Amino acid sequence: MNKSGSALTLTQHGWLFAAAMTALLPLLPWLPGWLIAAALAGLVWHAWRVRRGARLPSRWLLAIFAVAACAGVHWQYHRLFGRDPGLALLAIFLSLKLLEMRSQRDGMTVVLLSFFLLLAGFFFDQRIPAAFASLIALIVTIGTLIALQSGPMRPIRKILRTSASLLLQALPFMLVLFLLFPRVQGPLWGMPQDATIQSTGLSDTITPGSISRLAQSDAIAFRVQFKGDIPPPEEQYWRTLTLSNYDGARWAYRPLPERTALPYPTDGFVNNVGIDYAVTLEANNQRWLPTLDTPIQIPPDAKANADGVILASQPVRARLRYDMRSHLSLQTGAQESPQRLAAALRLPDNGNPRTRALAAEWKQRYTNDADILQAAEAFFQKQQLSYTLNPPPMNENAIDTFLFDEKRGFCEHFASAFAFALRAAGVPARLVGGYQGGELNPVDGYFTVHQYDAHVWVEAWLNGRGWVRTDPTADSVPGRIAGGLERAVGDSEAPLFARRDNIWLRDLRYRLDAATNLWNQAVLGFNPQRQRDVLAGLGMRDPDWNTMVIWLAALCGVMIAILLAFVMRPRRQIDAAQNLWHRAQRRLKKLGVDAPIWMGPQAYAEHAAAQLPQHAAAIHAIADNYIALRYANNNTPQQIRMLRDLISRLP
Amino acid sequence: MKLSLRQWRSWGLWWLRQRTADTPPLILTQRRIYVLPTKAGLAYAATLIVLLVASINYNLSLGYALTFLLAGLGIVAIVHAFRNLSGLRLSPASATSGFAGRHIQFSVTLGTERPRPAVYLAFDAGEGTHVDLGDNATVNISMRAAQRGWQAMPRLTIATTWPLGLIRAWSYARFNTHCLVYPAPADMPSLLPLGEGTGRRMHNDPEDFFGLRPHRTSDLLQHVAWKASARLDGGLLSKQFAAEHGDVLWFDIARAQGTTVDEKLAVLTRWSLDAHAAGHSFGLRLGSTEIAPASDAAHLHACLKALALHE
Questions:
Q1: Residues A129-135: contacts with CB within 8 Å, 24+ apart?
Q2: What pTM was computed for the model?
Q3: pLDDT of residue B194
């Protein structure tokens, strides 16, 4: 049947218009303004022309539009290929295609372009609301395919219901394919340059104010699933990176050689006292993988540097899940090389004379580095420093100003001053950037660490003990560690989301967060590794490509058989009439009618009426109704209801 | 390649089915229903492959989900296309005769116990009919008749691309039904022959228009049929007027213009139609066959049938 040639009706134009709109709408935030305006103008012009039944714009005009749009895209992105210009071009082509639609084949093209746009939307947003928006767009688009079928005009609601019903029937196939289709880890070819993400998180330098800025963000840094008990809050130090280069103003990460083995011995811990957990790290475009205190295992594809920092092989561009094992009291760096210790003592020549004088005093008084560390901790407690998200600006001799004059700061001020003082006193010290604390979501048992949990502390090197963690913030403001940010800075200063007094808001947040996490773990995080894990959980040990395809084919075959049985099942209404007739016969039998049930309704009614003359009218009414239902093509729900009423009126 | 006995047998059955008529009512079962993707379905499949590759390359979990949902939809479309035909009962109903070169219609009764949207029926050569079956229905399928005589009903294709236009399910029906095709009436102004033998003169009574004949110089100028003449290549036509009612005309193949039998039959058909339209009684002589003069519709049909089946 040659349908590609048949012209589109006004209703079909309307459907295609709606399909294009639902596919385009969710993409609006990601498209440049001029393009949206141009596309909308084109669509409105088109709608007006179609309503008036005007002739299609000439191909020349459309070609000029297309060239102009391509030029505009090139002007915007400086190229025509790649994700963002590709999306812009798709949006333009969809609008132009609507302008030149003539036949049902053009309609099909519009539908297929809409599919591409739906997929393109997932580049930018794969969260639950986006998935819902796409589902609605899909119902409209599939409805459009139904509306493109020739035949009499069908009501919109009926088409949408058919579309939703078809999608519902396709759902089991989707689930089986999602689970069993052999996954390949992308990219197949180079990821385009613009496929990177913008995100908040720790950076490779720390300056006064960088962490307090991060504390304003309620974005999730990572989620942790502990296999055993959750360590107490004072042990929840998520070590992420070390910062050992100090230039007087900022502490910077120093790249070190990376190895596949940890820089400290882990024997004796690996199999007994480690804490097992899995981290799901949000994409942050950095390579550091946060670990709980001292890791004693490196995830596959990751490496460790000499400071014990764990690094992924690539910047983390997509949510990454990795299994870890840590230890909370492992000695590290006991045999540190003199060069590395010398580097951990390096200070600029000038600046902060008061702190230097203080350090010199400690150095004179104590011979032992451990005593100097204790003296420093005691000093920080004695100074009554206060913790604030809004520290005053400190430029010249910032550490002196913080310790002796302003006495207010955020964790980077505390840590920076503490490490400076230790180095000035001859104790090797470095800053550690990471997160402290976190929050257990009681809904799904995941431990969530937000960006506002970002923290900086100090590691000092003591002879015979190696690197020792010391947290000057904890020494000065114990509430920060025990009660989190809000306890430390007070309700008035903490951002709304970090406050924990509003119980229903917190509960809602927990639930939303658990749903998001489930979505992230089960749907978005379903990669080849997770697929292997899930299939192993279902009893398929190390399934290879072949096994998966065989299972897939077998399951699809079974589902097709079930679907066929479902759609080919006899119509219920006819059965309903017959069931009611049988019910009437049972009732009459109880009343004493003695007639074979295989008799035709007419004959049966005659028999029954003769035996129960007092119900003759009712019996004939029932038989007539049944005959009308079965044989007179009068099978309506009202008719069925009437028959049921008549039968229930029998004694 | 050697075919097994079983394969030979199934091929033989298929061959037989291609040539033998189906006994009505024909119920479409899975053995008779063929299912293949349409062009749109192939484009859809190609789109899915591109979507899958993009999902793999960009690790788009929802991209996978979309691709797999659409793939599942393709499978669902196969099932529904098949379902839309499966169990459909067909039986031939009637045939509407027509003239060669024009359309004739075969009617087919479709029996269904459930609604079947967008069912398409067509003969191999001929535009088809789209129907949304809600209930049992009789559908007329037309075709262009090639030549006079009995036209057997050609193979009927019953197809559907419901619900998405991606998958086409179809089946064939061959019924042993025939439709009478009358000869195409000659494409010329009617020049009804005069009565028998010597031919009585027609009274050119203006009250009773009868037909047209070539103009003779003796004809009155007001009897020239100007409009009809304009359609003619050359020469003029004059209106002829009937004599009194009850004049009997005899149409004889021996007296009809034309070189071949078919040309003569065409002229006779034209005469019969025009005479019937004008309400005249006429008789038909085709060699040994002779149909007595009459003027009713049954008579016209009998004449046309005789013309259609003339050797």
A1: A130/A26, A130/B62, A131/B62, A131/B65, A133/A25, A133/A26, A134/A26, A134/B62, A134/B66, A135/A167
A2: 0.73
A3: 53
